[in-house]
Specification:
Rossmann fold; 41% helix; globular; single chain; alpha/beta
Length: 256
């Protein structure tokens, strides 16, 4: 006999994941599929086709489809969301994961800094609200990927830090505004994770950083972040709204 009454199943729901070609986006897309969702895999790279193909190979035809989309292209978002609805069904879960990092020095080249600022905010912040609005009114769960850089900052990274702080603000604002419709909006803040974005960091430097900064003494795996993301979309989590979930191995808790 089951004593609980709240469902932990997302079977049959349609989840749209941006940045799905690699890293945390790919892990989330695959995990949604494993949990029974139909997955719209979206990325600026056509490598996203491989993710959808893997899902269909594992779970059958009709369980995934893919779209190439530059989320900074405002005019392209609506048609993609409409096509997702036509092929898989209306979007019920949205994961705003697509992101870029463009190091920029405030006192450096002014044009280069302005370009990094504009591009980073367009992809990492503005696109989040555009996708959320495009998925209304059918979307029920929105998860925005911020970062531990949204809780603090590191040098030479101010466009990225500003965007990720903005994601948290946007998440809370949308949670307040959309909550009356039963829509939840939450954010996940990954810390150091082994993704394409961190692949440029030598392994030795990763290990040194983790030993010094992370209580678990290692970088995270994309799937560990994906489990946090998917958990926030479960029907049983329907009273979690406006939350900021940190997935960083204890890094931001460390005070020495």
């Amino acid at each position: 006999m089951t004593l609980s009454r709240l469902s932990r199943s997302i079977e049959g729901q349609v989840a749209l994941v941006t940045g799905a070609a690699s890293g945390m986006g790919r892990a989330a897309a695959r995990l949604f599929a494993d949990e029974g969702a139909r997955v719209a895999c979206v990325d600026v790279s056509d490598a996203v086709a491989e993710v959808a193909d893997d899902i269909e190979a594992a779970h059958g035809k009709g369980r995934a489809a893919w779209w190439v989309l530059d989320v900074a292209d405002a005019a392209a978002i609506g048609p993609v969301v409409a096509d997702v609805a036509a092929q898989l069904g209306p979007v019920e879960i949205l994961v705003n994961n697509a992101g870029i990092a463009r190091p920029a020095v405030v006192e450096g080249d002014g044009d280069a800094y302005e370009a990094a600022w504009a591009e980073t905010l367009a992809v990492n912040l503005t696109a989040h609200q555009r996708l959320a609005r495009a998925c209304l009114p059918t979307v029920r769960r929105i998860v925005n990927i911020s970062s531990t850089e949204g809780l603090g900052a590191s040098r030479f990274n101010s466009p990225y830090a500003a965007a990720k702080h903005g994601v948290i603000g946007l998440t809370r604002a949308l949670a307040v505004e959309l909550g009356a419709q039963g829509i939840t909006v939450n954010a996940v803040c990954p810390g150091p994770v082994r993704t394409g974005m961190t692949a440029v960091i030598p392994d030795e430097a990763k290990e040194k950083f983790a030993r010094r900064k992370v209580p678990l003494r290692r970088y995270g795996d994309p799937e560990e972040v994906a489990h946090a993301v998917v958990s926030l979309t479960l029907p049983a989590m329907s009273f979690v709204n406006g939350a900021v979930l940190v997935v960083d191995g204890g890094m931001t808790a460390k005070n020495d």
